[in-house]
Structures are given as structure tokens and as C-alpha cells.
Amino acid sequence: MEQLQWGRHYVAVEPTHFRVDYVINPFMDPAVQPDPERAMAQWREMVAVLERLGATVDVLPQRPDAPDMVYAMNLGLGLVRADGSRHVVLSHMRYAERRMETLTAAPWFAASGATTSYVGRDGVGAHLEAGDAFAFRGDLVVGHGPRTEELALKHLATELGVRVRGLRITHPGMYHLDLAFCPLDDRRALVCPAALDEASAAALLDLVPEPLVVTEDEALTTFCANSVVVGRTVVMPACPPRVRAQLEEWGFEVLLVDVSEFHKGGGSIRCLTNPVDLTLGRDLAVVPGGEVLLPTS
Questions:
Q1: pTM of the full predicted structure?
Q2: Nearest-CA neighbor of 144 among 115, 107, 122, 174?
């Protein structure tokens, strides 16, 4: 099996202003606030683990008025073009409560040497949240429904010149694809079919040659699909015994990192880390003009 080539360079947001101020997903309850010191300690341990595994983690400061900005996966879709230049398609958040995040992220990415673009902004145009987008087997797999709009798929395919495979998310608790799908290598992935409509679930299981199917309960109670992979190590917030046994049989090391304070806002390790090293021509096949594929019901 061929290891994932991406997932060695991340952007994360230090949780200096993390709290639950509003409700935009089923996990959020302003009456149940994260402990700031514990959250910071958990976040620092996560970053330290990734760096020990050889990954680079760039840290973006958190806006005081953006409590969800710590979920850096949703700032934008970062890529490396074939010529080595960096580009970020900035997210256009579904909820206005999060849209100010890109006002800080855009100049920060630009200062780091990346060009930026939008599929929509300021409430106008298609909504896109990067936690819905993953490279797998040469295609960009994008969930749509709760947060990302189907219209965004065409924008991504055309702008980037890639094949986009759209999947319709229907589960309110798995509102981003990163809560239900985690690529492991070039043939394997954690997949929670319960997040998707019937046709999309079937399409995703067909796409993954060797899926490790996660139940609805496992996905929602452990956030196990919201993990990151560095080489042969899967960094997870928790791992059901059955899932661990299969991962270890496949030759992966499971490394648990407690980020339970961040579960109170509806995200875990993948939500907290944004891989910016997806490379066109390596991880995503170049498709001139782009192409969108949707499941047939």
C-alpha cells in the first residue's frame, strides 16, 4: 500500500479565545463551556505529537471575536500547484457567525506566500467549508448539504482543474465530511455511511477499495473518523477496540490524543488541523476544465 503523501504540513489556530457562544451544530451548548487551560494543554499536546511525527505545524493567531476559528480545517482548502506555488481556496462559511475568520486567514495565507481565491464571500455566492473536502485516489471528494453547497463543487472543479466527486451529507451530527471520512492510504479509509444519503454512501464505499466502516454511534461518540494520518500513524481522539484491531492489522500505529474539550464545539483532531500540502498532479489528478461526478440514485 502507498502511504498518503499529504498530511505532513498543517495550519492550526491557537485556542486563546475558544468558547461556545452560539449553537450551529448539535454538539454545542453555551451552558457547557470548555475549560480554557485544559483546552490549551490538549491543543499543545496535539501539536507536539504531530511535530514529533515529523509534520510541520504553522500557527495562526485566533481572533477574539471568532470562538470557532480554532477549527482551522474550515479556513480554506490549501493546495500546492504543479509548479510548487501555494494556493488556498478560502471557505465561505454557511453561518455568519464564522465568516470573520477568513478576514484574518486571507492576509495570513497571503503573507505566507500563498495566493487566495473564493467561490463565494460575505454571504454572496456558493458556501464552501473545507472540512468537506478530501483528496483520495486522485479525486477531490467533497461532501455537500449542511455546510457546503452543491454549487461549490463546480467552482472547485473548474478553478482547480480537478475531478470532484460530490457526496450528499444528510446526518445533522456529521455536518462536515471530516466527521465521517478519513483517508488512511491509497486504498483504505475510515467511512461512516450513516452520514450520507443512500446513493452517496454506496458511491463512497465503491470508491474506497478497503473501507473500514464506522457505525453512526462510533462516529458520534468517539469522533474516531475526525483523525489525521502522518505516514503509518493515525492520530485519533479515541478509537473503538474493533477499529483499533483493524488498523493495527493493516500495519498502522494508533496514537491517541485527548482533545475532549474541543468536542464541546463539535470538532476533534482533524477539525483542529488543516493540511495545506495537497499537491496537484500528485494527490489530485489534473483534469483540464474540471469535472464533477455525482452519484446516480
A1: 0.97
A2: 174
